[in-house]
Write a structure and sequence with these properties.
Blueprint (H helix, E strand, L loop, with lengths): L15 H4 L22 H7 L9 E8 L7 E10 L9 E7 L3 H9 L2 H11 L10 E7 L4 E7 L13 H17 L13 E2 L3 H22 L4 H12 L1 H9 L4 E3 L8 E2 L9 E2 L6 E3 L2 H11 L2 H21 L7 H25 L2 H10 L4 H15 L2 H7 L1
Parallel strand pairs: 6-10
Antiparallel strand pairs: 1-2, 2-3, 3-5, 4-5, 7-10, 8-9
Helix pairs in contact: 5-9, 5-10, 6-7, 6-11, 7-13, 7-14, 9-11, 11-13, 12-13
């Protein structure tokens, strides 16, 4: 998938309620939600794309599973032919469907991933954001079926776990601009598609999911992640104070799963930067995005060399784009919690999704999945004494 718009933040951008007034994706409830690749048919595409066809029609289509499987959804590669070259729509799209795997689907039900992502694309337009263009989004809470039909992002590409330091730097710059644009914007707190920091049920589910996953992690790694598990236990023991702490922090629109498999980059000078998979987006401390990017994107040795520079560049960009009184000390307060949260997300992913997929994707990059998904975060948590930080709140 890729993005269709360049992000040009403006300090005078209109309030978010105005910017999101016209949904970017149709949401007609009388269009059935496909549950498998076969149901992404020509007839269905004509119905879903009706608001965008401009009097034209899809005359032929071919849908097949995408070459890179999704971790929380089934991804379909769709090729379309129209009755005229004058049709304004692209001839290749991506359909994202609710996962056929029952365990993955149940995890997404608990954390409302499908509901939130479909709602996000209905609420946020791609104009002025590094988002993929979405043509149709729908979710049925009764069946947990979900569909998001969006443009294909080629020639932009996702480097996955083979992301380079230069790409990390670009991702830091892009997300700094995104954060600055919505820094402490109260209208974010009125967006139901975003996870809110005062949603106690959500954060209790997150806490319980993290604690439950500790058993799985111990089976995999023995006692190699005990500092991370100590952080989970400290969070649980100090849950109310921890939640009150983050609710009092500066906030922005943040992705909250901001790592290389969610990012698309230009290829050979063509394409654009894009962020996908907005199913866990939060109106919360922006440093959490940097923590997740660094956690899954950099091996520990490289991180020790470039981390301080990345943080300094991020803070400089915030200040240059109107964010005041947010220096390194404030950042590190939020970063420590973000380092904990990204490890908690990793624990849940390892416990509740297909570990074989993680292993295969990391192996294709010459990496050990346990190192990427567990041990990098363990070292960050140890270096920052995150258990002590959480106990002190």
């Amino acid at each position: 998938m890729t993005l269709d718009v360049a992000f040009n933040p403006s300090p005078s951008a209109p309030p978010i309620d105005e910017r999101c007034a016209s949904p970017s994706a149709s949401s007609a409830t009388n269009i059935r939600i496909p549950t498998n690749v076969e149901e992404v048919s020509t007839d269905w595409l004509n119905a879903a794309l009706a608001p965008y066809l401009d009097g034209h029609a899809v005359v032929q289509s071919h849908a097949e599973p995408f070459s890179d499987p999704g971790q929380t959804a089934d991804v379909v590669d769709v090729r379309l032919s129209f009755d005229s070259d004058a049709c304004p729509l692209p001839t290749r799209m991506i359909a994202k469907l609710a996962a056929s795997d029952p365990e993955t689907r149940d995890m997404c039900r608990i954390f409302k991933h499908y509901e939130r992502e479909a709602g996000f694309y209905k609420s946020f337009e791609s104009d002025g954001l590094p988002l993929v263009k979405c043509f149709h989004a729908d979710h049925d809470p009764a069946t947990m079926d979900m569909v998001i039909l969006m443009e294909h992002l080629a020639p932009s590409y996702s480097p996955g776990y083979a992301i380079s330091v230069d790409q990390i730097r670009l991702a830091v710059r892009e997300v700094a601009l995104l954060h600055a644009r919505w820094w402490n914007d109260d209208s974010l707190k009125r967006q139901p598609a975003l996870v809110q920091l005062d949603d106690e049920d959500h954060w209790l589910n997150v806490m319980e999911g993290g604690l439950k996953s500790c058993e799985t992690v111990r089976r995999i790694l023995g006692d190699d992640c005990e500092i991370s598990i100590a952080a989970m236990e400290a969070f649980s023991a100090n849950f109310n104070a921890a939640l009150a702490h983050v609710q009092a922090r500066p906030f922005a629109l943040q992705h909250c799963d901001y790592h290389a498999k969610q990012l698309f980059f230009p290829k050979d000078g063509e394409g654009r930067f894009a962020i996908i998979d907005w199913q866990f987006s939060v109106a919360g401390p922006a440093a959490w995005d940097i923590a997740r990017l660094v956690n899954l994107g950099l091996d520990s040795a490289t991180r020790s060399e470039v981390e301080d520079g990345l943080i300094a560049e991020y803070l400089d960009l915030l200040a240059a784009n109107g964010v005041e009184d947010y220096g390194r000390e404030n950042f590190m307060t939020d970063y420590k919690f973000g380092v904990f949260l990204t490890q908690l997300i990793n624990f849940i992913a390892v416990s509740e999704t297909d570990k074989a997929l993680l292993e295969r994707e990391c192996a294709e990059c010459g990496l050990d999945w346990k190192e990427v998904w567990l041990m990098r975060g363990e070292r960050m948590i140890r270096e920052l004494d995150v258990p002590g930080f959480l106990r002190s709140l």
